[in-house]
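Lab manual, section 2.4: Encoding a predicted structure.

Procedure: take the sequence of the chain (95 residues), apply the prediction step described in section 2.3, and record the output as structure tokens. A sample record is shown.
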Amino acid sequence: MSLQLDEVKRIAMLARIAVSDAEAAAVRDQLNDIFAMIENMQAVDTTGVEPMAHGQPVILRLREDEVTESDRHSGFQAIAPQTEAGLYLVPRVIE
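Recorded output:
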């Protein structure tokens, strides 16, 4: 895939970016180089290669998902200005 100069100008117009003809030509060349590199990468046979989540062999230390905090709900309810049925009552903001 390669972009033409009018396509680059249209994309710039849609993005509300003002570009001169020289800038559009430079961007077109850079984008076409990127597209060529992508085409080269897609041509590589990756059969049997397992996808990686990260470029480095990073191992996350996982821990058990367990509750470590005590239940302080009643304490917070006691100091709240207004509560009802275990819920906090707040003033209406939208009418």
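Check your result against the sample. The longest strand covers residues 83-84.
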